[in-house]
Amino acid sequence: MIRKIRFKSIRTSMIIYFSCLVLLIVTAFMFFSIKYTKENLMENSEENSRRLIEQVNLSIENYVDHMENISHVVVSNRDMREYLFGDDETGVWPHLKEEFQTILQVRKDIYNIAILGNNGRYFINGGNRAMNTRAQLEKKEWYREAKEAGSEIVISSSHVQNLVKGDYKWVVTLSRGIQNPKTQQVEGLFILDLNYDVINDLCESIHLGNKGYVYIVDQKGEIVYHPQQQLILSGVKNELLKEVLNQNTGISYKDENGENKIYTTFRSGKTGWTIVGVVYTSELVKREQAMRAMYIGMALVLIILAGVIAIFLSDSITKPIKQLQAGMKKVQEGRFQPVYIDAGGDNEIASLNRSFNRMTEHIDELMKRNMAEQVEKRKSELKALQSQINPHFLYNTLDSIIWMIETDDAQQAIKMTSILARFFRQAIGNSDVFVTISQELEYTKNYLLIQQMRYRDKVTFDIQVNPDILECHIIKLVMQPLVENALYHGLKYKEGCGHIWITGYRLENKVILKVMDDGIGMETETLQNLFRNKNKTGGKHNGVGLGNIQNRLKLYYGEEYGIQVDSEREIGTAITIEIPFLLPEHKEDTDEKA
Amino acid sequence: MKKHKNGIVLLLLLLAASCFVFSLIRLGEFRENKKVKIVFIPKVMDETNDFWMSMISGAKSAAREYQADIVILAPQIENDYVTQEKYIDEAIKLNPDVIALSPIRYSEMTDSVWKIKEAGIKLVLLDSMLDEDLAECCVSTDNIEAGTQMGNKMLDYMKDDTRIAIMSFVKASSTAIEREQGVRTGLGEYENRIEIVLYSNSDYEQAYEQTKQLLKEKPEINLIAGLNLYSTVGVARAVREMDLKHKINIVGFDNDVEGIQYLEEGIIDTLIVQKPFNMGYLGIQKAVEIAKGKKVEKIIYSETEIITIDNIYTDENQKLLFPF
Fold first, then answer.
1. Is A481 a residue whose pLDDT tops 80?
2. How far apart are CA B28 and CA A385, in angstroms?
3. Closest CA–CA distance from residue B185 to any residue of chain A (Å)
4. Is A175 helix (H, G, I), strand (E, B) or coil?
5. Closest chain B CA to residue A140
6. Quick check: B131 pLDDT over 90?
C-alpha cells in the first residue's frame, strides 16, 4: 500500500521534491554520460591500437621493401653470377666485397648478406666470414622453404641465423633463388638477414597502456615476435596464435590470470604476418573508473548546489506565505491590520495578499460600523433612561404637597409645588444630552430642596462650586442620581441630621465634582451592588444606578473619565466625578466624538 | 529557527554522502594504484652471461605485466657473495614489499637474509635455496629432477666399457649436491660406473685443467657429466684440445655461445638447459602475488629442456638458447 508522505511545511516538501528531481535528472545524465564515454573510450582504444599496429606494419613492410630492392639489385648483378657460376672466382671477389660492404654500411638494419652456390661457393658479408660448417642448414625451416620456392622471394619467420661461424643472431631472412645464366636453373641462394633487433625495438616502442604489448605471428601461426615468447613456448603462458590469423577485428579474450584483454589484429599483405596489439581491459577500466569518479563527483557537487539553491528558492517562495500566515493569525486574534509582504513582484501570493488586505479592511470597517451602531444604540437606550423620572418620587412629593395643603401650610405647598415644577421642567423639558454644570447643579439643588422639605431636619446640604466651571458641559443626570444615592444609602439610616456637600473645581483640563455625605457609609459589597444594579427597579428611588452613571461617563468622555467612590463605615461616602473641561462651543466636538 | 535546522541537516547529509562516495572511489583507486615494489638481487649481472641476463629480462617482463616497480641490484661477478650481502642491506633500506634473491651461498648468507625477515620484508628465492626456511616462495629448477634427466640421458651413451666422471662445481652448494644426487638416480643400476667426482669451483680454467689431468690419469673415462656451465665448458675445452671428441661423450648443464658451438661441433652431446627467463618471470609473478597477500605455493619448479644437435633449432629451443 502506498502511503502518501506529507511534509510539515511547503518549504520542506519543495526542497525535497526539487532535490529529488535534480537527483533524478543528474543521475540519468550521469548514467548516459558514463555509458557513452565508456563506449567512446573502448572505441578510442581500439582505434589507437589499430593505428599503432598499422604503423608497426608499415615500418616492417618498409624494411621488407628495402630488402626486396636490394635483392633485385644483387640477383641481377653480373659479378655475383660470375662469382658463383663463372670461372673467374677471384677476379670479381673485390667487386663483390665492395658491393656487399656498401649495402651493409648503408643499411644498418641488414645483419647478413650472403650468396650460397649449390657448388659450394659462398660469399658472406665482406667475404671474410667463414660459413658455419656444422650449421646443417637443411634442417632449418627457412632454408627448406627458400629452396622449395625456387627463384621466388621468401620471407622467413624470425630465427637464429647460424650460417656464419661463431655468430648466432636473431634475424628475419629474405631469400631468393639465383639462376645460373648458363643452365637457366636455380643453382644458388641469395640471403639477406634483417636484424631482429629492428623488429624487437619497433614492437617494444609501441605503448598500449602500461601493460599492453604488440606481437607478431606468421602465416602458420608461429611467433615472429612476442615479448614473452619463452613463456608461451614453454607453456607457462597462453597466447592467441592461430586464433588471430583469420580475424580482422578486435577479439576479447580472458587469459589464465583472469585478465581481460582486447586483441586488435592487422594482417600484412606483403609479409603475410599478422600483427596483434593487445590492450588490457583493466587499464581501460581504470581510466573508466577515473572518469566515473569525475562524473560522480561532478554530479554530487551539482546535487549539493541544487540542494542549496532549493533551500534558498523555497525560502524566497514560502517567505511571503509565512508572512501572510502571521498576518492572518493577527487578524484571527482580532487585530485588523493590513499585512505587508514582499512577494517579489506581482505573483499569486501578492494578489492573495492584496485580496486578504482588502478583506481585512472590509471586516475592520464592518466591525467599526457595528461598534458605532452599538454605541449609538446604547446611547439612545441611556437617553431613554435619562428621561425617566422615578414615578415614586413624584407620588411621594405630591403626597407631601397634599399633606401640606391639608395642614393648611399653603406657603410650603406653594414652594414645593413651584420647586417641583422647576424640577420637572428641567427633567422633561430639556431633551439635550448635555447641560451646563450650573443647570445640573440647579436641578440637583431643586431635588435636594424637595427632599429637604419632605424630610424636615433630616438633611442639610451645601453646594460650593467654583464659578469658572459653571458654564462647563456635563451630561445630564449625573449629580442628581449621586445625591439620591447619598440620601437613600447614606443618610436615610443615620440618626439625626445628615449633611451633603457638593464641591466642584477645575484641575487643569479636567473638572472635578464631588458629592460627599456623612452618612453611615457603605460596605464594599454594597458599593459593588450599586455599580452592578443599574437596572434595578427599586420603588423608592430613581432607577439610575452608579453603574449607569459610570457607563455613560465613559461612553461619552472616554475610559479615563468616570466616577470614583470612597466610603467608610460610620464616616460617610465621597463620590468624585472626573470629566473633561468642555465649554459650550466644544459641544459640537463632543458630539462628534461621541 | 526550525526551518534553518532542516536545511542545515539536509546539507550536512548531502555533504556526508558525497564524502562517503568520494572516499570509496579514492580508496579504490589508491588500492589499485599502489604499486608493488620489488628488489631483485640475482647472482650476477653480466652482459655475457646469458643465463642471468635472461632471468633478469624475465623478471622485468613480469614486472611490466604486473605493473610492479623493480630494482635490480647485482654483483658484477658471480660468486661475490660479500657484495651480494651488501646489496641485501641496501635493498632493505629501499624498504620494498618483496626482495627476490638468488643467494650465492647456501649457508654463509643466512644472517644477512635474516635481516630481510626482521625488516618485515617478504622474501622470494630464485634459482638457489638457503639452508634455512626463510622464504615465502622458492622458484627454481628442480635440480634433482634435472639431474635425473641428465642421468637418464646418459644411459643413451652407455656402453659396456663406459666409465663416468662427474665435474661438479661448488662442493657444498645445494644445487651441486642435488644435481649429483639426481644424476645418480637417473643412472640407476649404472651408478657404479661413476669413477670420480671433481669440483671446478665454477671456474672454466679449473674445470679445464682438472679434465686434462683426469684424462691423462684415467684414460678409460669416456662419459663426462658437467654439472654447471663452467664445468661443462671447461670439460669441453679440454676434450676439444685433446681431440678426444669421438671417444668421449659429454653431457652438460646450461649453455652459452661456446657451449652451443661445442654442441654443433659434436663435442658436447647433450645439454640440460634451464629456463632462466621463466624463472625470473615466475619469481616476480609470485613476488607480486605475495605482496598482494595471495597465498602461493612454497616451491615452484621451473622446467629444464634436453638439448641435442637435433632439436637445437626448434622454435622453442632457439629462444631458450639464444636470448638477445
1. yes
2. 97
3. 25
4. strand
5. B313
6. no
Report how many helices (DSSP H) and strands (DSSP E) chain A contains, helices first. 15, 17
Core vs surface per residue A318-329: b (16+ CB within 10 A) or e: bbbbebbeebee
Residue of B nearest to A232 (CA): B316
Q: Which of B1, B4, B6 to mutate to test the interface with A (most CBs of A within 10 A)?
A: B6
Residue A159, H or E segment = strand A153-161
Q: Is A21 helix (H, G, I), strand (E, B) or coil?
A: helix
**Rounded Cα distance, A15 and B297, in Å:** 59
Closest CA to A109 of A200, A216, A189, A215: A200
pTM given for the model: 0.64
pLDDT digits (tens, 9 = 90+) for A546-574: 777 888 888 888 888 888 888 888 888 89
Per-residue model confidence (pLDDT) at position B12: 67
pLDDT of residue B149: 92
pLDDT at A535: 44
B72 alpha carbon, distance to own chain's centre? 15
Which of 241-260 (B) contact A at CB < 8 A?
Answer: 257, 260
Phi then psi for A481, rounded to 5 degrees?
-60, -30
Distance from the first to the final alpha carbon of chain B: 79
Contact B11 A223 (CB under 8 A): no
β-strands B299-302, B137-141: how paired?
A: parallel
Q: Average of pLDDT values for B243-252?
A: 90
Mutate to test the interface with B, among A208, A210, A236, A239 (most CBs of B within 10 A): A236
CB B312 within 8 A of CB B306: no
B169 sits in which H/E element: none
Which amino acid would we find at residue A268? S
Chain B residues whose CB is inside 8 A of the A236 CB are 278, 281-282
Tell me the torsion sign for CA atoms B93, B98, B101, B105: positive
B23 in reach of chain A (CB within 8 A): no
Flag whether pLDDT at B226 surpasses 90: yes
Q: CA-nearest residue of chain A to B311?
A: A139
Considering only CB atoms, which chain A residues are within 8 Å of B64?
210-211
pLDDT beyond 70 at A253:
yes
- Position A536 scores a pLDDT of 44
Contact B96, B121 (CB under 8 A): yes
What pLDDT sits at residue A46? 82
How far apart, in Å, do the first and last CA atoms of chain A sit? 67
Residue B124 exposure: Cα atoms within 13 Å on the Cβ side: 31
The number of beta carbons lying within 10 Å of the beta carbon of residue B34 is 11
Q: What average pLDDT score do residues B225-241 get?
A: 92
Q: What is the pLDDT of residue A539?
A: 39
Q: Residue A2: which pLDDT band, with cuts at 50, 70 and 90?
A: very low
The values of phi and psi at residue B38, to 5°, are: -130, 135
Three-class secondary structure of residue A42 per DSSP: helix
Tell which of B3, B263, B267 to mutate to test the A interface (max A CBs under 10 Å): B3
The upper half-sphere exposure of residue B273, i.e. CA atoms within 13 Å in the direction of its Cβ, equals: 32
pLDDT digits (tens, 9 = 90+) for A180-233: 888 888 888 999 999 998 998 999 888 888 888 899 998 888 888 988 888 888
The pLDDT tens digits of the residues spanning A48-85 come to 888 888 989 999 999 999 999 999 888 888 888 888 88
Query: Do residues A76 and A181 touch, judged by C-beta distance below 8 A?
Result: no
- How far out from the chain centre does Cα A360 lie? 33
Within 8 A by CB and 6+ apart from A301, the residues are B18
**Phi, psi dihedral angles at A551 (to 5 degrees):** -60, -45
Contact between residue B138 and residue B283 where contact means Cβ atoms under 8 Å apart: no
User: Is the pLDDT higher at B193 or at B256?
Assistant: B193
Chain B: closest CA distance from residue A34 (Å)? 15
